[in-house]
Amino acid sequence: MTAAIERPGGLRRGNAVARLWRESTLVRHLVWSLLGLLGYYVLSVSLDAFANLQLAQIAYLAIATAGLTVLSGLSGQISLGHGAFVAVGAYTSALLLQHQQWPTAAVLVAAVVVTAALGALVGVAAARLRGPYLAGATLALAVGLPALADYHGLRAVLGGANGLIVTSPPPPLALGESFPVERWQSWIAGFCLVVTLFLLANLIRSPLGRAMRYVREDEDAAALSGVSVARTQILAFAVSAGCAGLAGGLFALVNNLAAPGAFTLTLSLSLLTAAVLGGLGSLAGAVYGAVIVTLLPSWSTQLAQAANLPREIYANVPLVLYGVVLMVVIVLFPGGIQSGVRRVGRLLRTAVRR
């Protein structure tokens, strides 16, 4: 009798949990974020120091790529200059750590705020440009902004071509005196990545995210439906630039350096390549793209050295492999790697149901 009475209550509770999972995107995103933090921790503690540095690099590149994929995939604006925003975040963090000794969290928040403000200014101009004109303007930003560090009026502050040396805060003593600095830096980068993906995932489902999609599909129809096209595009640039600024702050912390040579046009193109490879508009795709962009050069170099290729040849192998991988992904999965993952998932579910 007791079991008969308790069972319906248990079913009701189970149904309530299932309904909450289906209807609340916030709960789903929170659960996935916690699982992501757990998975990142398990992966980090199983890796050595060098691999943890690579993991941190993947994390901050994924943050910048996620911001770019929201800008290009969600709001439909192209940017070839996100490396410049990464540079602003890195220099902001370097200056604060060098002169103010702010806590790490405050430094990273400041990098986000400063870069988002710059992104909003760029967004004001970008809202008036379309297509190749916008691409050209952001390309000029990528080339010109990092070069300001070597301008004679700013050389004393920004360190010129040599840049600024950054002293990263040590791990907390509670972790032990012998705790690897690389793992601590990787944890910071991983935590920032998960938080960024959580916030962006909720932004995509928010009214602002819907407005960005309307603007991407048809600006005139969006304006007629009450969406402020210019404001939406400016906010999209600010959010995307803020992500790049956070990536830049983490770059400075992990690499102990902020120098113009690290923020060339190649970085901007690598971020765009990562976004396209993973799938524009896909946050999971941003992670896949960051993994490929980070690991492919080292893998290709090791492969070329193992084949005993001359140095002048294997130096260009990563560029060739970039092109090959990009063409293969575009041919097989026009929507990026994430679209391929979804397609495989659908095929597996269909096979299981049969």
From TrEMBL:
The chain crosses the membrane at residues 30-51, 58-85, 105-126, 133-149, 184-204, 234-254, 274-296, 317-337. InterPro entries: ABC_transp_permease, LivM-like. CDD domains: TM_PBP1_LivM_like (cd06581). It is found in: Cell membrane. It is a multi-pass membrane protein. The keyword Cell membrane applies. GO terms for cellular component: plasma membrane. GO terms for molecular function: branched-chain amino acid transmembrane transporter activity. The keyword Cell membrane applies. Keywords: Cell membrane, Membrane, Transmembrane, Transmembrane helix. Coiled coil: none annotated. Signal peptide: none annotated. This is Branched-chain amino acid ABC transporter permease. It comes from Amycolatopsis rhizosphaerae. Its main location: membrane.
